[in-house]
Amino acid sequence: MATVRAPFDGRVISLKTSVGQFASAMRPIFTLIDTRHWYVIANFRETDLKNIRSGTPATIRLMSDSGKTFEGKVDSIGYGVLPDDGGLVLGGLPKVSRSINWVRVAQRFPVKIMVDKPDPEMFRIGASAVANLEPQ
Predict the structure, then answer these.
(1) What is the DSSP letter of 119?
(2) Is 9 exposed, middle or buried (0-12, 13-18, 19+ CB in 10 A)?
(3) 96 Cβ neighbours under 8 A, 6+ residues apart
(4) Closest by alpha carbon to 42, among 69, 75, 83, 89?
(5) CA within 20 to 30 Å of 38's CA: 15, 73, 115, 127, which one?
(6) Which domains does the chain have, with CATH numbers?
(7) Which stretches make up the p-hydroxybenzoic acid efflux pump subunit AaeA-like beta-barrel domain (predicted)?
(8) Contact predicate 98/104, CB 8 Å
């Protein structure tokens, strides 16, 4: 019997073992989600970026309960995305589509928003949210 201690509080998901089984190197037996800090990634039009700065206040609504709001602030603004025209591709850039329902729109760039007081019962990785920024 072994005890596993995490370096932070969080949620154990995707548990792939049971009592009596052996663990081995390079084979994860679970995933640990850090619930201390939550971020929302929102894709904003390039024409809106001029008013967005690190620290810009934000209001966030989760699609799972749109009646509840959370406050946050912009943590960072993306400075590159993968082009969809076959141009230069750099590793590590996010892919953000420029088309919505066959209509070509302004390029969008990811804006990372840190949630001030997240409710760990409501936030989930990959969940949908709506973010409104309040530039000053």
Answers:
(1) -
(2) exposed
(3) 43, 81, 82, 107, 108, 109, 110
(4) 75
(5) 15
(6) 38-133 (2.40.30.170)
(7) 38-129
(8) yes
Nearest to 114 by CA among 68, 52, 59, 72: 72
- For residues 125 and 60, is the Cβ–Cβ distance under 8 A? no
* Local structure of 51: helix, strand or coil: helix
pLDDT in tens, 84-115: 655 555 667 777 766 666 666 778 899 999 99
Length of the chain: 136
pTM score? 0.76
Question: Residue 129 has which token pair?
Answer: 């949210």
Nearest to 123 by CA among 57, 49, 88, 72: 72
